[in-house]
UniProtKB/TrEMBL annotation:
It comes from Actinoallomurus acaciae. The keyword Aminoacyl-tRNA synthetase does not apply. GO terms for molecular function: hydrolase activity. The keyword GTP-binding does not apply. Keywords: Hydrolase, Zinc. This is PIG-L deacetylase family protein. It is an enzyme of class 3 (hydrolase).
Amino acid sequence: MAHPDDVDFAAAGTVATWTDAGIEVTYLIVTDGDAGGFDDDVPRGEMAPLRRAEQLAAAKCVGVTDVRFLGYPDGRVEVTLDLRRDIARAVRQVRPDRVLVPSPERNYRRMAPSHPDHRAVGSAALDAIYPDARNPYAFPELRAEGLEAWTAREVWISGGGLAEDHLVDVTDVFDRKLAALRSHVSQVAGNDDLEGMLRGFLSANAARGGLPEGRLAEVFTIVPSQ
């Protein structure tokens, strides 16, 4: 994901269901979120370590302990070979079966998912998954580091203008998703109805997917990558 809190808005409930099932989850956050926040009294130099700490706390709420940061500048992420290499390195290190990424497509229903950093990270991540991570001759410096090629089985895409056709019922873990997001104090402290906003989005997802009234769902597009 691009920023601290992105994974929690998009998928913290789903992640909680994975860790509850014994699935190991690693977060790779491309930026430190140093351009985030709303309080002018917080020096800019303190924002990046603050947001790293918030993401670590949020991850614990849903059972994730392996959180990695690449330290790219917030708001200035572009699809570069360096970014593709850095994501491919993480894929080869972790060797995941499933990779969750933000959509590289613009969402014309809502602006927030289409932050340019999100789209850049989504595009670079898809390129890193195919072909970079699986091609032993791409980025030979990775092989020199002892990182052999790896092919992820599938990609889950969140938050774009694509056909989001896979629902995960997160009703029973909603409290943990909410706790994760409340860990991002620098970002959500001014939201007086965070719970109501989340329930609105997740209820709408569930309704579109035909789930019973009162259920909450996160939605994704799943792309086979083998």
